[in-house]
Write the structure tokens for this entry.
Amino acid sequence: MLSKSGNGKYFVDAIYNSNIFGRFMQFKFIYETLYKGISQVEGSKIEQFEFIHGAIFNVKFSPDGRVLVAACENSCVQIYDPLKYNRKCDVIQAHSGCVNCIDFLDAKTFVTGSDDKTIRIWDLRKLHGPIHVLKGHRGWVKNTEFDTNTGLLVSSSFDQTVRTWNINKPVDGKIESVIVMKQRELIRATLSKDCSKLFLGLTDGNGILIIHDLNLETISHDLIRPSLHRNRVELLYKCPEDIWCVYSIDVHPFDWCIAARFVSRDDADEKLCTYDIQDTHVGGCKKQCEQHSRMMHSIEECKFADGFIKEISFSSDGRVISSPYKKGVRLLAFSHNCDELCDCIPESPTTLSVISTITSHKRSVLTSTFSPIMPLLVTGCRGGEVLFHFPRF
């Protein structure tokens, strides 16, 4: 801002002289510096034995960030203290098949889904056995989500069904499932953070389905007799060419977009894309989200670890996406400055910026996740290692 002095000279306003502008510019680039500085925490490497635990398929933090749980290939669940970078205990034979997914119900309770077709509910204070074993799926359970609006657990499986479980109201000690949706070629179902939308990742080139204004109690009825006010179905048809499978989906922490990782039909290429999921606008910005403009960003991914799902993850502030990349991860952002999405919405699909490439494992990385309370990144690999990464300047 310019103002005029008594002698007729112009000078920079006191706001500028106090270097607030300089401080603003420093703040603008602090996120880029923060995420570029992420590297493995010294002394945090936890030796694993691949023949005992197998690959790490999924890692999840508790809502308060004080506990980390890892899902392992060889039926095991591992419990970590992320504040001390160490493993607290293992739950051997948590399932009778590969443990694929983890979801926390609250700070002390979590659920696991497995190739043994069951879902198990665990209490961190009593890990000698599960609280409940949920049976009903006829295929591998690949994803579980907790609907905070209804108190229902939502699960998806290779049996091509989406089921709900009223875990708070068992009948005669048992928790039965309700099939709310059957969808051919289903890989996984993921809820938005506010539980108002359901995202279905499909195979055979069918892309992603979004169900808006989600109502789990009426969805089976509304899919037969569509409603204008609930469970509206939209197909994200503008997907990468020659896609075959959508095997990983993560939702922006503020529900501004989703990120999805695809593999091509010939299993030769992989790509990560982001899609606007807002009904009218993103993050308060007045950009209309017409159906044909849902795709916002994309980037080619490296093809490795054939046949394994690579789990992607947003940072807790939504500025960065962690995506497995060979023996590490790439940190991807909407701009080279790690701007928030609402500050850099592209007019047409553009390429994500690579902020950093972190290589710290001996084997291919299959999963990663960010802490909900600090810039701590955790990665798990095919060889059974779990590593912690934190900014270092």
